[in-house]
Amino acid sequence: MSAPRVGWIGLGSMGQGMAINVQHHLRSTASDSLLCFNRSVARCEPVVEAGAKCAESAQDVLINSDIVFISLSDDVATKATVEAMLSGLAPSAAVKKLIVDTSTVHPDTSAWMQTSFSKHGAQFLAAPVFGASPVAANGQLLFVLAGPPDAVKTIEPYLEGVMARAVIYLGEDVTLSSKLKTVGNFITAGMMELLSETHVLAEKVGLSEAAVENLIDLQYKALPLAVSQRITGGHYLPVRAERPWSDLNLAVKDVGLVVDCAKNAGVTLPTAETIMGNYKTAQKYSEEHDRPLDSSSMYGVLREQAGLPFESAVVKKRDDEA
């Protein structure tokens, strides 16, 4: 039995690294090359250099693949792409195909995608991921899967050891993975807010970043330390012309999903409202300075609120040297 043909749609900061890892795996197993598509053709180039082939459209990927991974920025882009994939196709055109959506979208969008693809005979897995773009490039993402168990088994060869460090399976209800991703994004954004506030306080009272991070490392361990180093390393304000690890505008979308889910559940989240306020201020800074910001950019906002410059000493030194 021949190996399934694999396609990829969406080569943004996350999708590109993930697709390259899948292509490396396909090459190592002597399988057909990955078939990829992105609206901006330039984003296909690194994946093609790794051995993939570039398709002319998202529908082309669907027609010529058995498994199609999707990695897109938001609900609007995801819905538009799915409609383009299915436009004009016969009801049976996608029979036995498997669609895997790694995007972070609203739970209702995951349900809509499942319905849309099932009408054409395809299976659907909701598979949002945890991790910024460097984590994606290193194949160390955490996948949260929901959908048919046999579909999960089908994509196992492309997960741990290829794109993922671990997998959480939540059952067949595809909305659950989107809900868990939303909850997880709230934890991450909350941690960024807390540690940004902590570092601003520490600087104002005369504590060194090294002392604070030593405490975080010894007392709170890996994830808080990684978030702290993302802030103190200056990644909250990327070097000009570099893409953020996790774009601020996507973070606004993600926290917006948190707020919407909370509203629907009758829950008030004061922390989410604080984060969103700081993100909106950061967006203004980004627009005024024509400079993309990372999802940790509330650190710069909090610095200004405390009477400090938006740019930390690390950022100033880095940019001066650049």
Automatic annotation (TrEMBL):
Q: InterPro entries from the entry? A: 6-PGluconate_DH-like_C_sf, 6PGD_dom2, 6PGDH_NADP-bd, HIBADH-like_NADP-bd, HIBADH-related, HIBADH-related_NP60_sf, NAD(P)-bd_dom_sf
| Residue intervals of the 6-phosphogluconate dehydrogenase NADP-binding domain | 5-171
Q: Which GO terms describe its molecular function?
A: NAD binding; NADP binding; oxidoreductase activity
3-hydroxyisobutyrate dehydrogenase-like NAD-binding domain mapped to chain residues: 179-299
Any keyword Oxidoreductase? yes
Q: Which controlled-vocabulary keywords does the entry list?
A: NAD, Oxidoreductase
Keyword Cell inner membrane applies: no
Active-site residues per Swiss-Prot or TrEMBL entry: 181
Which family is annotated? Belongs to the HIBADH-related family. NP60 subfamily.
Which PANTHER family does the protein's record reference?
Answer: 6-PHOSPHOGLUCONATE DEHYDROGENASE NADP-BINDING DOMAIN-CONTAINING PROTEIN-RELATED, OXIDOREDUCTASE GLYR1-RELATED
Q: What is this protein called?
A: 6-phosphogluconate dehydrogenase family protein
**Which species is the source of this protein?**
[Torrubiella] hemipterigena
What lineage, starting at the top, does this entry show? Eukaryota, Fungi, Dikarya, Ascomycota, Pezizomycotina
